[in-house]
Structures are given as C-alpha cells and as structure tokens.
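Quick one: structure tokens for this chain, please?
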Amino acid sequence: MTMVRLASRLRLARNGLSLLVLWTSFLLLACQSGSEQKKNDSSQGGAQPPLKFSVNGVEYSRALKSAAADSANQAADSAKLDSANQAADSAKLGSANQAADTLDLLTLSTEFNAQIVVHNYKDFDSLAVDGVALKDSMASVPVSRIAKDAFLTLSWKRGGSRGSLLLRTLHKLVPNMTVTQDLLKGPMSAGDFYLSYVYLRLIQKIGNNGQYLFYRFEPKVDTSGNCTGWWDFKKHHGDDGKIYYSYHEPDSTYASWRFNGFNPGKRVLLDETYNKLKEIQLEAADSIQEGYPVDGHDFYLFNSEHYILMSYIDRVVNVKDRDTVASAYIQEVDSGKVVFDWWSVDHDTLFSMLDPAFDTTAGKDYVHMNSIDVLPDSNLLCSFRHISSVLKIQRDSAGKILWRLDGTSSSNAFHGQHFARYHQEDSSITLFNNDNGPNNTQLLRFNMGDMDNGSVKNKTVLRNDGYFAQACGALTFSGKNVIAGWGIPGDTTSFRRLVAEYNSTGGLIFSLERDSVKVSEEKIFGATAFMATYRATKYE
C-alpha cells in the first residue's frame, strides 16, 4: 500500500513538473511573439522607439521615422549605408527628402574619435555609425571634418524596418566665419586659435588652416546686456605635465549678482580630450561662502587641484560718495584649501584712481579687474580696466601693491585695457589697449627696466590701424607673430573682425571674420551678439 501511494505521488510530481515546463515555454514564446509583433508593427509603418544616445558625453533623444513613412529612395539609401561607400551615401542623404532625419550635434572634435553610446540599443537589431557596428552599445569613429555639410551617419535596423539618422557635425546655428590667409606675408606660427563670445554659448578651437578642431555650443543667447555667454576658453599646460582646457560658464543661481562686465558663474575644467573634470567656484574664506560664483575674465591654473580665481563681491565701505562697491577679489586654492586671497577694498589708494573715461559707466565697479598672470618671482600681475592700471601684487598674506603701471600718465597712455601679460624672454609687458576715450585701439608692448620697481624703458605700438574695440580683446604671441583677438566692436560698420595673426612688420597673415549677418540669423541672435568675441587667442 505504501509503495502504491509513493508511485502515485511520483507520477503527480512528474506531471506537475511537465506542466511547469510547458507553462514556462508558453510564457517565453508569448514574450518572443510580442517582441516580434512590435517589430512587425514597426515594419508596417508603426512608430519607432526614440533613439536615446550620447555623443562625446552630450545626451540626445530622437524619434525615428518608420520605413513605411519613408520614400522608396530611403530604403535604397539605407541599404547603401551598410556598404563601404558610407561617406558618399551620407552626402546623398543630406538632400531635402532627408531633412527630418538630421540632428545637429552640440560638440565634436576632429582630434579624437567621436564616442557614441546608444542607451536603448537593445530595442534594435543592429546599429552602426559610419559603418562601424556598435559593440555593447558603443562605437568609436573618426571625425574627418567639422562643417555644416559634413555628417556622421547612424544607421539602424529593427524588424523589417531600417533607416538612418544624419548627425550634422557643426550645428546649423553656429555663426559662419570667413577665413583669409596670405602665406606670402610669412609662415603661420605654431598653435591653434581659441575663441569665446560675450553673448553666445560657443567655444571654438580653430587650426591654422581655418578648419575646426573642436567646438561646443548651446543655442541660447542673451542680448539684454547680462552677458551670459561662455567666456575665456583657453588651453593650460599643467605643472603636472598634463594638458587642460577651461572656460567660464554662467550660473543662473547668481543671476541677481550680475552687472555690466560681471558674469557670475563657474570655471569648467576639461581634460586633454575635452571631457569635463570638474566645475570650480570659490572656497569658503573670510566673508566668502563655499560655492560663491567666480568671474569669467581670467583663470590661472597650475594643475587640476591648484589654481587662482577671480570674482567680485559687494562690500560696504566708508569712502566719500560711496557706500557699497564691487570689490575685486582674488582667491588661490590648493587641494581645496584657500592659501591666498586679496581684496581691492583693503587698498584705499585705489578709490582715487578712476579713469575719467569711465566716470559715468563704472558705478560700483570702481576698479574692474580683468586679467591675472603669475610672474617669475611668484607675485601677480593684474589688469584693472576702470583705473587704467596694471598692478604688481605681492602674493603673500600682506598682499601689498608693489607698483603700478599707470595708463593715465602721458608717457604710458592706455585706457580700459585687457589681457596684461609678462614675457620673460625680453622682460616686457603687453596689453590689448582698448583706449576708451580716444577710441583708438592699440596693441602695446612695454619693455620693463626693472620688474622690482615697475620702471619702463620704452613703449612700442605693435599695431594701430584705427579700429576701435570698446571692450574685451586679447593680445598673444607665437614666435615673432602677433595675434589680436578683437573683442567687442565699437563701430558696427566694421564689426566683422574676430581674430587675426600678423607678422613682425604688421602684415596680415591670417584672419577669421564673421560673415555678414543674415536677416534670419539676426532674428535668432542679433548682430551684436554674433560679433562680440570675448577672447580670441592662440596657444601652442
């Protein structure tokens, strides 16, 4: 009796197990059938899932057209895109019937492969970029050219449907530039051009042939005078042997702190392949809270943990005709600790130095610091626009002003200058002299007699061609060539200058100029916004 019951139980167990296996198989088939049905629905003209992907860390999402919604030419072209002749076919797909399948990229570089990651790659049977199949959601493809008529082609297949998405390598709203080059005037110097704009959120790295090497763009502009562009894009050679890049990005948290010339925000630090490393703001110090905004005029980097920042902080003062001023503030940070800081309000003599050229415009911004450089003796060389002065500042707890290069004196004669830099090879200081007041911008060099006391041997005008840049601007050197970044134009009839390279006798070798503004572009950005370069420099 016991054996019979045991056999009966075993048969029930086997039957139960068989039912479980059958039920599991049914579920698997149902899921598979549902998946295939979705793919078949898509192939019959149903909506495709959006493509969610990133290119060099920037996220995109794009709804895809179904094969049934495409023309017969699309299917043929999509098939061609699987072939080795991808590049030629990509150009064909730039035609009008493919306009809806074009996406404008926001950043790219020709120096490094584009890194594409498709987050929902499992929704597709196959994906490829320029013929390179994705592996584990990723593809790395070379970028031969960045231009509005150059594309990366992302081709996809899902069920019986296939198609392609053209990735425009240069966003269609980026302003066009005209390149002029005359190598008969001399060879180009080593290095690349770095451009940033007062109002546009656009940074560009341009090679000696006028071609893009890198750019990053956000199609947003503010012509209200709040100056919300990305500022001061530059290259850094760190003392740790690494290459860094950085630029200033506005921080809307501190929008109420803005005044004309102050764009409160954060310094964005990039690695050598333009990947973001960190965002930098002020560290906590006396009268400073951690996270206070920095100013975008300049930034001096030793390495990713050691750097010098600038800002403006409102301070109450007891000075005739003044109660609150925007104090220029310098902060040096090393490994998260403030190792030096300096306030302009601690130096009473600065209150009496305002250049008459800024009597009606300075307001509480009584000194307007706009550049910082570290001298060989470790002290600081800083430019102050509203007092038309370059100061040597002792970089220790005393923070003394060691000497002043006074632009209001007749022998020096500069006004509203930018970008003061020291050159050890000939012991000279160079300035981009906006020359507000006389309104005749000049590129100046001061050969210094003694950097300990600020004595000047002589002054040389490197360029004076009647052009007036009312604000911003930069003067850099590469070899014997002079590079001028022309800043904000003072005369809108000649507002096309961006950056130019001249030989030692003043001959124009290379220039980048803004194309004439079209009415359609003017409605989006405004002519002034297009033309106002913040910094345009050259770095090796």
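Confidence is low (pLDDT under 50) at residues 1-45, 68-100.
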